[in-house]
Amino acid sequence: MTKAEISSSNASANEHSRLLLKRTSESESINNNEEEDYEEDPHAFGKPINWLECLAHLLRGTMGTGMLSMPYAFYHAGIVGGPLFMLFLSFISVYCMNLLLRANHYMCKRYNFRRLDYGNLSSHIFQHCHFSFLRKNHKVGKNTVNIFLILTQLGFCTAYFTFISTTLQEVLKEKSDNFVRITDLVLFIPILGLCLIRSLSFLAILTSIANVLLFLGTIIIFEQLFVGIQSPTRLPAFASPLQWPIFYGNAIYSVEGIGLVLPLENQMKKPHQFPNVLNFGLTFAFGVFILFGFMGYDRYGSDVLTPISLNLGTKPIFDIVKIMFAISMYISYAIQFYVPVYLCMPWIHKKFEKYGTKILREYAFRTILVALTAVAAAAIPQLGLFVALVGSVASTMLALILPAFLHLLVTVIKNKEYPKKINRVIVITDYVIVVFGILCGIMGTTVAIMQIVDAYIPTNSSPLMNATTVAPYSSTFTS
Fold first, then answer.
1. What is the C-alpha separation between 266 and 45, in angstroms, rounded?
2. 115, 310, 312, 423: which could form a disulfide with 305 (CB 3.0–4.6 Å)?
């Protein structure tokens, strides 16, 4: 099962979603008058933060349960391939975040925008670029970003369902094959109750509790990895290339945190310090990811589970750790869930204006979304593959393809004004990243879908499934 990816979302759930919501709401004025040089209340973005506070937010929003999926991802890359591929993917991810920053800096300076979020930045770049098709359809830029943000957040939410139900199965020592599916549906009621809370301020209090539980649980797991570490030479240096797409999907899902970039920079007292804070913070965070993945895979080898907390055993202290993670995921579900609700409600109110009051429409929509994630979790219990699918599609678009594409469009805009100042190497690099993202996204999506289909075939008839055998799941998913 893939509590692992669920993981990735928990830390993100707290910091990423909170900042994303803040910036989205604060940028709505941009949409209302897209050509206007707007002035905003300097206090509208909350209390300005210094570089140290920014670093703390960045680390809290990037690190977390996403680390729990790293050993599983490394299983699909090899004991040497895992660190190498992760290092490369981390570098590309950080580079793309810097591309997004550069594009944002140019657009704000050139067109007198004080602040832009990811979606509105995309819309304005489309609007001011030199391609008539994109100018006419500039709102597609924002809609594309929002759609993939929604897909990513709902992917987190779906993963939380299975994470919690699988944890309960492990703790209760329940062996029934249908336990997880049944529990997913039963959990619909308590999760819906939490998601009907409309106050983000109240949810922020619960988020602090989730962060503490997550931190303590992660520390205990890290300590366990130091015990009984074996020689890495016994493990394959590189896994089969057919397994690499599963590594990619899990890894990009875990490291994708580009939604944090613009909100954090906009909230800093001295925004010019942010690039250095970003580079240092992510270098540290991804270094810890690589260390955690290497140690976890080295410790458990081919028996590694996802999330790795399932490898802890059945001692009471480990059951407590699992319950701590389950509670953390339960709370984080509501935070992650808040983002798609916020982004979708304007459209819902517009399309269904004649039906009921605003509050009734919102409650109905929240209920439908929670039900959809519950059904999805029950339908696809192999959540490791589900997360790889979401990572290959949504995370690839947000973290790799769109930043490079937007920077490329900004470069075209600048080229019309300063034709001799354009660095062709940077242009070529943008093209390469876009192509790389598209290829990895296609391969990761294809392999994930094929393995999800194979998971429902009771025979070993699929050559792909045999060639890309995944790491063992918990007993929940064994047939």
1. 8
2. 310
